[in-house]
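Lecture 7 notes: from sequence to structure.

We start with a single chain of 277 residues. Read the sequence below before looking at the structure.
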Amino acid sequence: MSEKSILITGCSSGIGYDAAHTLHKRGWRVFATCRQESDCERLRDEGLESFVLDYADEASIKAAVTETLSRTGGTLDALYNNGAYAIPGAVEDLPRDALRAIYEVNLFGYHDLTRHVIPVMRKQGHGRIINCSSVLGLAALRFRGAYVSTKFALEGLTDVLRLEMHSQPIDVILIEPGPITSRIRVNAQPHFEKWIDWENSALHKLYEFGLRPRLYDTSGEPDKFELPPSAVTKKLIHALESKRPKPRYYVTVPTYLSGFFRRILSTRAFDWILLKG
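Now the structure, written as tokens:
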């Protein structure tokens, strides 16, 4: 294939890291962005083009798009919105500012970056926008309210954008991974510590004996049905290179099961399954 260009966010580790390296090896020109310059330096040492893009900073998003277009001569074939984080905690314990902060990154940042690239793709006559959602964009889990709500919102925003782009030469695609080997749990720890006053919560025993041991688990044992990031990259490649990409790509058994159960079960029946999980 002739070299095509893609801008990927959240490339410091996990899904974004694997996607950046794999696509680079497949001949794509990859712009692998990270929130921290130190991570970008590491990726540049590994042979990737990398610079800072922080979803929480509008100026950073604009600067990253400008840098990308300056390197390509004004074109961009694909965008992979991937970076995100979690704030574990019960909904009743989430301060308003905690939700503001996570929405800035997990939703508003995706939206802002997407709006910057749509005119480029429309002008050049083609493009693919791929948003990394989650099984938690299909199914709720206790103590995941902040993250779940951003992914449910992302699902809706992406679905509407896909409908609005129906007559345009731009494909809008969702990838919905379940448990994938990554640093999301480790990365969530400082956000939990910053925002959740678990010791004074009415649910403090659930935190003490349930959420916290799991959040700070250092055993390295994988979650049930956990797959490596390459499983997501495999679906990403199809989304990017297929002549007729799917609007949705499930990754891992829990995502397939959640999509199936959500279609056929009542809300009460689905809740019963989720409470067992």
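The longest strand covers residues 170-177. Keep this in mind for problem set 3.
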